[in-house]
Design a protein that fits this description.
This protein has helices at about 30-45, 95-105; strands spanning about 10-15, 20-25, 60-65, 70, 75-80, 115-120, 130, 145-150, 150-155, 165-170, 175-180, 185-190, 205-210. With about 220 residues, it is mostly beta strands. A seven-stranded antiparallel sheet has the order 1-2-11-8-13-6-3, covered by helices on one side. Strands 7-12-9-10 form a four-stranded antiparallel sheet, with no helix packed on it. A two-stranded antiparallel ribbon has the order 4-5. The structure holds succinic acid and fe (ii) ion. One of its GO terms (biological process) is oxidative RNA demethylation.
Length: about 220
Amino acid sequence: MLDLFADAEPWQEPLAPGAVILRRFALSRAAALLAGIDEVTAVSPFRHMVTPGGYTMSVAMANCGELGWATNERGYLYAPNDPATGQPWPPMPAVFQALCHEAAVAAKYPDFRPDACLINRYAVGAKLSLHQDKDEPDLRAPIVSVSLGLPAVFQFGGLRRNDPLKRIMLEHGDVVVWGRESRLYYHGIQPLKPGVHPLTGEYRFNLTFRQAGHSKLK
Ligand code: SIN
Ligand code: FE2
């Protein structure tokens, strides 16, 4: 298929108060980001987490950075060690940090210092039900979300679960940043459609950068 945007510069689309889509922002570094995912998951492999309610998530997850998102019987938590290996999560690759910083600056969150990066892998049919990202103690920090590989439909609502949803196709290289007024807006990913992407095959990957610990800034 002819891709009319193959050579286009990234562009921005406002999403909600405090939220913006940086279209194709990660495109030029996509291969390096995917190599980073391989590096991290060679040490801390993808796994299908079981929710506190006993449900096995369809999305496979891994983490890098000082803290990683995990579950136990009591609920969700950010932990310094991977429960699967007992070791600290692998460090965030330099290309992850650089891309995240540049995206945060472009989205007007120049002080964002992520200490956690959740890596999601979607196979056909995998989805993420509508939820809020609310396990982080300092909600002044935004979420920076990077999409790679197959496209998926992102739903973005409001503060209430039944607020109207925008449905946005996120494509390879797109970055979404949400914070301030929209930091706790409900969002999700609709079931992945089958397809083949030249760089990721039958998968979509997503990186979400978070500040999961307390702020080190005064
Ligand atoms: C998330 O909601 O944390 C990830 C969303 C996505 O995969 O784009
Ligand atoms: Fe989320």
